[in-house]
Amino acid sequence: MTTNSTLDSKVPGPRSAVLDDAHVGDIKGALGTIRLDDDAPRQGLSARLKTLLAIVGPGLIVMVGDNDAGAFSTYGQAGQNYGTQLLWTLLMLVPVLYVNQEMVLRLGAVTGVGHARLILERFGKFWGAFSVIDLFLLNALTLVTEFIGVTLAAGYLGLPKVASVVLAAAIIIASAFTGSFRRFERVAVALCIGSLLLVPIYFVIHPKTSQMAHDFVVPQMPGGAGELAAVMLVIVSIVGTTVAPWQLFFQQSYVIDKRITPRFMKYEKADLWIGIVIVIVGAAAMMGFTAAAFAGTDAVGQFSDAGAIAKGLEDKAGHLVGVLFAIALLDASIIGAFAVSLSTAYAIGDVFNIKHSLHRGVKGAKGFYAVYAGLVVAAAAITLLSTDYTQGLMTQFVQVLAGVLLPSATVFLLLLCNDKAVLGPWVNGPKTNAFTSLVVGVLVMLSLILTAAVVWPDISSDSILMIMAGCGIAGVIVAGYFFLAGRKGTKEDPIDRTGRENWRMPPLETLPKPVMSTARKVGMGALRAYLLLAMVMVIIKIVQTALNH
Q: Across the strands, what pairs with 33?
């Protein structure tokens, strides 16, 4: 009989793309274990619950990690400046969150290969390098915003700035350097539970429930046409902070590192839904209690930062509420830093083919841990050396850069999920393709609006409406095309999904290269041109702003 230790070190045969022995073995989650040789059917509520508890982690962490320091500022700004009138954006984002993250968890479980590696191998060196370079830059800046969140929380709590940043960096590094996936995940899950501190704040402040329910399901644009540009920027910020590029890279690699296979797909989807519910509840609570705390005060429309929100909550309901919010902000900043640093280290490990797994100790994956720790240390140092003005400039740059890059990340995700050589019986159906195409159209529209608003701050409402109308029409046309083409293709060449629970992608080097049609070449060329132009314009604008200051 094969022992468990033998099973842990056994790498599947040549028909599997699993990277190495660190990604094969028992599933050792924060809340349970599933042995590699445990292939019994899950019958009964107790068995299914135990399996779910073992699987929970990737979806929960990626979602709660996105309610980070930047999210606190964005949702706080929406609530302080516009009350609860933008709550409907959260409801609209639920299907976007699910479809995007379901596709990457499917890619991770089926292929055993990280997102960056798949882009490199299936689309060439340019896009592989581009995906890692832009992710590295964006994540490094995002990590700085997490430490800015630490300083704001520490400032409200009366803690020394330098000591707080150094201690936070030490916790973030130490939690990953244990060489134990389970220990890291337990810390991360504990921080996810800590994010629920927002709920008691909501009940203490007690915003009007009927108004929140109405604004959650009835879309509206506060301020009228004269404030459309400002409102659109806040909406774009909400989308950018809720649906971020790093999430795609993080969840796919984390699913692989946790050793989750297609057999447990439905449990991982449940894990994702748990994370989505928590992130939407947290975001709605922040908008709601911030709106109630500042309603009727001179601070309405005068948002500054998350630290000022803590002070506003204190003025409304006492010091304890302000303390709870500051602790929640500190918690969110640390878990955001966990996820952003890890997604970068995973991606670089993918592309440069170096060992990258939390199952390995530092000696077994030196490059992986060096990238992780180096990013954290650099971000902490930049935060301590920067001024309030440069911190605000970096926060703005992160927001804009995420908005510019998000459409391209979703395009590659869509293309990979239609690659039959990669996903076989797990490829997208026509409905998923149509919806994702529509999402890409909306993201492109928001990206264009955000870029235009940064480059031309005085952009008119009419110009914004023209961008929205043009992208909306194009999105509907493209979505319709993919839906009809998908239905036709399915009828002519139906997808055989039998036995897919045991199907894994063959090794990447054995796959046939994807056929680059004329339409795809034109589309990718246009995407490349837009990304380069938009990034150059944004960088020029940021430099001009800094020089003028």
A: 28
Rounded alpha-carbon distances, angstroms, from residue 465 to 86, 121, 237, 472: 18, 39, 18, 10
Instruction: At 32, give phi and psi (nearest 5°).
Output: 170, 175
Question: String of b and e for 27-38 (b: at least 16 CB within 10 Å)?
Answer: bbbbebebebee
Contact 343, 253 (CB under 8 A): yes
- Contact by Cβ (8 Å): 180, 337: no
Which residue(s) pair with 28 in the sheet?
33
Q: How far is CA 228 from CA 208, 304, 448, 478, in A?
A: 26, 20, 15, 27
What are the phi and psi torsion angles at 91 (to 5°)? -65, -40
Report yes or no: 133 and 445 within 8 Å, Cβ to Cβ: no
Dihedral sign for Cα atoms in the order 418, 419, 420, 425: negative
Residue 95's contacts (CB-CB under 8 Å, 6 or more residues apart) are 435
Closest listed residue to residue 241, CA positions, set 142, 105, 95 = 142
31/156 Cα distance (integer angstroms): 34
Alpha carbons 488 and 430: distance in angstroms, whole number: 9
Tell me how far apart the alpha carbons of residues 381 and 374 are, in angstroms, rounded to a whole number: 11
CB count, 10 Å around CB of 225? 13
Q: What is the Cα–Cα distance from 182 to 194, expressed in whole angstroms?
A: 18
Residue with tokens 């830093």: 337
φ/ψ of residue 34, rounded to 5:
-125, 115
**pLDDT tens per residue across all 549 residues of the chain:** 333 433 334 444 434 555 567 778 889 999 999 998 888 888 889 999 999 999 999 999 999 998 888 889 889 999 999 999 999 999 988 988 898 899 999 999 999 999 989 988 888 888 778 778 878 888 888 899 999 999 999 999 999 999 999 999 999 999 999 889 999 999 999 999 999 999 999 999 999 989 999 999 988 888 765 577 778 778 877 887 777 888 999 999 999 999 998 999 999 999 999 999 999 999 999 999 999 999 989 888 888 888 899 999 999 999 999 999 999 999 999 999 999 999 999 999 988 888 889 998 898 899 999 999 999 999 999 999 887 767 767 776 776 677 677 777 888 888 899 899 999 999 998 888 888 877 777 777 777 776 677 667 677 767 777 777 777 677 667 666 666 665 665 565 677 788 888 888 988 888 888 877 777 777 777 777 777 777 777 677 677 766 776
Please give the C-alpha separations between residue 32 and each of 27, 53, 56, 300, 538, in angstroms, as whole numbers.
8, 6, 9, 47, 46
Contact in structure between 346 and 357 (CB atoms under 8 Å): no
Residue 83 Rama label (left phi>0; alpha psi -120 to 50; beta): left
Q: How far apart are the first and last CA of the chain?
A: 72
